[in-house]
Prior knowledge:
The protein is α+β, with helices and mostly antiparallel strands and 610 residues long. It contains 18 helices and 23 strands. The strands form five sheets. Strands 6, 9, 10, 11, 12, 18, 21, 22 and 23 form a nine-stranded mixed sheet that branches. A five-stranded mixed barrel has the order 1-2-3-5-4. Strand 7 and strand 8 (191-193) form a beta hairpin. The protein is globular and about 95 Å long.
Amino acid sequence: MHIYRTHSCGALNETHIGEKVRLSGWIHKKRDHGGVLFIDVRDTYGLTQCVVDEDSPLINTVDKWRNESVITVTGTVRKRAEGTANKKLATGGIELYIEDAHMQSESDIIPFQVAEDDGTGEDHRLKYRYLDLRREKMQRNIRLRNDVIATMRNLMWGQGFQEFQTPILTASSPEGARDYLVPSRLHPGKFYALPQAPQQFKQLLMMSGFDKYFQIAPCFRDEDGRADRLAEFYQLDVEMSFVTQDDVHAVMRPVIEDIFSRFSDFTGEKRRVEWLPDLPYQEAMLTYGSDKPDLRNPLVIVDVTDIFAREDVAFKAFKNVIDKGGVVRAIRAPQVADQPRSFFDKLNSWAQSEGAPGLGYILFEGNEGKGPIAKFVPETAQAALREFTGIESGDAVFFVCDMPQKAASMAGKARDAICDALPAGHAHARESGIYKLCWVVDFPMYEFDEKAGNIDFSHNPFSMPQGGMDALEQKDPLAIYAYQYDCVCNGFELASGAIRNHKPEIMEKAFGLAGYGRETLEEKFGGMLNAMRYGAPPHGGLAFGIDRIVMLLADEPNLREVYAFVMNGQYEDLMMGAPSAPAEEQIRDLHLKLNLPKPKVEDSSEKKRA
């Protein structure tokens, strides 16, 4: 018999009755039933109920062992007593009668419960992450992550892609976020950057003649923490040669569809997978107020600026904004006339919490409009509003008024807030039990940076502009679209990609319009620019966020629930103590001098009041 185990804690069943076996694992729970001691022994494969009889010489010893201690038990498998089987467990029909038990590693008193959720805070869980990872939910999530990545690899290999590993220490690249910098000891005053994405390397591989590339790529971005964003993350990074935008979508759609379909019942509820038609960026922003809309939400946004600009409409709060170039967006909420006043008041309070004056509305019952804005909108204008928005009796229409970009963003948030406020079972509540995916296409190549006062790239700077050089030379830069696309699912951006610019002259012109001179281009992207001059194939690709895919499949609200080891929202590793202050000799070796911010001085009047 093996020194530690003959079976895992999830392997035994009624076919093993009468066999002598050995298990090793953690003490999950102990229960004393009138002198008979029940011990649940757990490993990553499952849990087995073990029993120490009251007349066993082991009972006094085992009774003192703490939960989460690691033990080895040997005994005979028996059928559970009539009526005590646990159908929720794979091992629920049997129990192990312990004849021998050994302590492998004794646990101290644990800082929080592992066997059940005791509501301990996230920082506490992350400090003792090795304990948190023992929980059944975390074990399942990490196995899901492993299975998703394995499936991705197999699907990509099956389509003839080669897997590559690109450098981690590299040069800074404009990917839309701050770089993490690594000082060079051998080159004083110079720094490496951790890759925000392997963008240049995967394009260089296409220029090197490799036709199909993929990588499970680690990426690093120094951005503020969010529930769906981490400083370090992984993506399914893909690039291929001699392809159009439609080709990239045709290759990747079955991969993602397969993954969502294969793991769609992970939470116990089978979910459908539906792929919707491509959605142009401008339409997404107007209709949904977001470039990553949750298409399970049936509510839509319409522009009603012309109605509120009419001379017979006397609502000055909107007119003043319209006169300055603003817009009015409307969201129809069907059949809410039977909702209490608190329904509308809560939405108004929500809007104020978002920095808006409120969320005005008109409620239509019959042909009569009611509500705080109705008295400013005459009957003829209300009739136009009903016709334009498709309003029926019992519907309400909510309004957002601001400058175009801010109005789109606020209307998108309001669309979701209104949908969330609808009661369960409402005909227009958010759809459940489904993954709705689509490609958002035709992104603007450039945007105006109000803070800097100039034009910059709005998305990936290495994208091919639609219309090529002609568009760059003849069009207003803000009117140029790029061959850029995102894949969105249930309100999350899962992937971002583009058909790349493979011509050096177009790259020089495109960067020039964004304010990057030729010298800057040569300095920062000389390697790729030179490679283009020696023959570059048309190519394109994208990257899918693995962590967000797993998060959606596991139905988790936070990316930190699908990682083994991760930092908190302030990017602190509470378990390992990172980031930490470097030693003096390390600073000297790197030829650095720290210029730390001055400590914040506490206001004396505030101190007195405290």
